[in-house]
Amino acid sequence: MKYIAYCRKSREEKDKQILSISAQIAELKEYAKREHLEISEFVEEEKTAKVPGREKFAEVLKKIEKGQVSGIIAWHPDRLARNSIDGGKLIYLLDTGKLLDLKFPTSWFENTPQGKFMLNIAFGQSKYYVDNLSENVKRGLRQKIRNGVYPGKALMVISTIQKLEE
C-alpha cells in the first residue's frame, strides 16, 4: 500500500514554528521504517486547517480519489483536519473505500466503525481546540484594553504623536 505523508504547520511566517515540518518529516520517516510502510511522497503545507481550502491538502485528496495512493501518514489527526468539512471528507473517503488507511505515530486508527468514530472524536477535539483558543485570545486582548495596554505592537503613530507633543 502506498501512503502520502502529509506534514503541516499552521503559520506561513518563516520565523514561526521553524522546526515543525522538519520534525514531522523526521518522525514520519522513522515511523514508516519501523512499521514497514511505503511513503510515495511527502507533502508539506504551511496553512491553518481551521478553515477548509488548503491547496496541497486538496491535491492529496484528489490523488486518493484517483487511486494513486491508498493511505495517508501524518503526525496527528489534527495535522489533517481542524474543521468539520475536511474531517468529514476524510471519513467519507474511508466510507467509500477510496482511502484505505490512516497512520499516525501519535494515535491509533483502524478502518472500522469504531476507528472512524474515534477519528471523528479526534477531529472534533481539534476543532474545539482552535475555537476555544480563539475565544481565550480574544478574552486576553479585551483585558489588555481594560488595563490600558495596547494589545499588539506599538503603533508608529503613537510614538510620533508623543514626540510632537514634547
Automatic annotation (TrEMBL):
It holds the Pfam family Resolvase. InterPro entries: Resolv_N, Resolvase-like_N_sf, SSR_resolvase. Residues 2-148 form the Resolvase/invertase-type recombinase catalytic domain. SMART domains: Resolvase. GO terms for molecular function: DNA binding; DNA strand exchange activity. SUPFAM superfamilies: Resolvase-like. PANTHER family: DNA RECOMBINASE-RELATED (PTHR30461:SF23), DNA-INVERTASE FROM LAMBDOID PROPHAGE (PTHR30461). This is Recombinase. The lineage of its organism: Bacteria, Candidatus Daviesiibacteriota.
